[in-house]
Amino acid sequence: MSVPSTAPDRPTVAVLGTGIMGAGMARSLLRAELPVRVWNRTHAKAAPLAADGAHVCASPEEAVSGADVVLTMLHDGPSVAETIEAAAPGLTPGTLWLQCATVGPEATTELAARAAELGLAYLDAPVAGTRLPAERGELTVFVAGPQEAQEAAAPVLEAIGQRTIRAGEEPGAASRLKLVVNTWVINLVNSVAECLNLAEALELDPKVFLDAMAGGPLDSAYLQGKSAALLSGDLTPSFALSTALKDARLILDAAERTGVRLDLMTASAARFTRAQSAGHGEEDMIATYFAGRSQP
Q1: Quick check: 99 and 105 in contact, CB under 8 A?
Q2: Distances (CA, A) of 38 to 12, 46, 52, 220
Q3: Distance between CA atoms of 112 and 208, rounded to whole angstroms?
Q4: Strand locations in 101-225, DSSP E?
Q5: What is the pLDDT of residue 9?
Q6: So what's the pLDDT on residue 203?
Q7: Which of 44, 77, 288, 68 lies closest to 172, judged by CA?
Q8: Tell me, what DSSP letter sits at residue 47?
Q9: Is 121 helix (H, G, I), strand (E, B) or coil?
Q10: Closest C-alpha to 19, from 46, 37, 38
Q11: How far is it, in rounded angstroms, from Cα 208 to Cα 248?
Q12: pLDDT tier at 5, thresholds 50, 70, 90
């Protein structure tokens, strides 16, 4: 694996994938005054970034040409692998690849091996956070990979995140940590949804429940924020339900391989599946609420 010998103060960053998270991360990079090149499979999702100062590219190859850092923020392992293959002719050995999508440990290992074949410095770097933290540069970034590469990535990590958790030098360590974190998030949002389901069934104003929790030891910003979004009817995704379902399946795959029984995650995945089948996949993941109704 090639590792950059120097870390440019203002590295040119190619962002591949400008959906909910990638677009916010690109804007955070631009606010840090880093040159940014962007590409997205659906061009209309990348085009608005031109107004923020990004160079919008027609292909992954064009986006990575001349970039010091390539940041991938796509849906899953296969989409990352496909995109990096499309970008390969424009990649230069020694380029730093910051792989920020949640793809799971297995896919991360495969992507790291492909990076080595291409002579890239690979960092396993999934992020914790949703749309608003991405827009504000307030993500938590979990990073695993060679120390030199982590140091070279510092300007990018500082631009997109408020905190970097260094998980080690073995690619895959950060992805394993991300699965544990997402287990907490996914089960928590389904717990919120079930409380609101039961309040409705018992003909209780959910605001009474939320007021009872407010300020106490069991309260959380997540409980209040997700409940407020649902009750207002604003299901604009900060973390799409379909993406949460993808992550739940990655978690269950990891649990099966390691012999761990995750009953809550199994139930969470089932709720997400029902909600997605009822047409809520592109809404925020609190739309799992609709899976608790007799007719979602």
Answers
A1: no
A2: 11, 7, 11, 35
A3: 50
A4: 121-124, 127-128, 139-144, 161-168
A5: 83
A6: 97
A7: 77
A8: G
A9: strand
A10: 46
A11: 31
A12: very low
pLDDT tens digits for range 175-215 = 999 999 999 999 999 999 999 999 999 999 999 999 999 99
Joined together, the tokens standing for residue 184 give 């907490």
Angstrom CA distances, 67 to 92, 123, 287, stand at: 8, 16, 38
8 A C-beta contact, residue 135 and residue 29: no
CA angle 158, 37, 17 (to 5 degrees): 80
Q: Is the pLDDT of residue 284 over 70?
A: yes
Domains of the chain: 13-168 (3.40.50.720), 177-292 (1.10.1040.10)
Report the C-alpha gap between 36 and 27 in whole angstroms: 9
| Res. 296 pLDDT band, cuts 50 70 90 | very low
Strands 121-124 and 127-128: unpaired
Residues 6 or more apart in contact with residue 204 via CB below 8 angstroms: none
Average of pLDDT values for 21-40?
98
Look-up of token digits 């209309």? 44
Backbone angles phi, psi at 255, to 5 degrees: -65, -40
Write the DSSP symbol of residue 59: S
Question: CA dihedral defined by 273, 275, 279, 285, rounded to 10 degrees?
Answer: -100
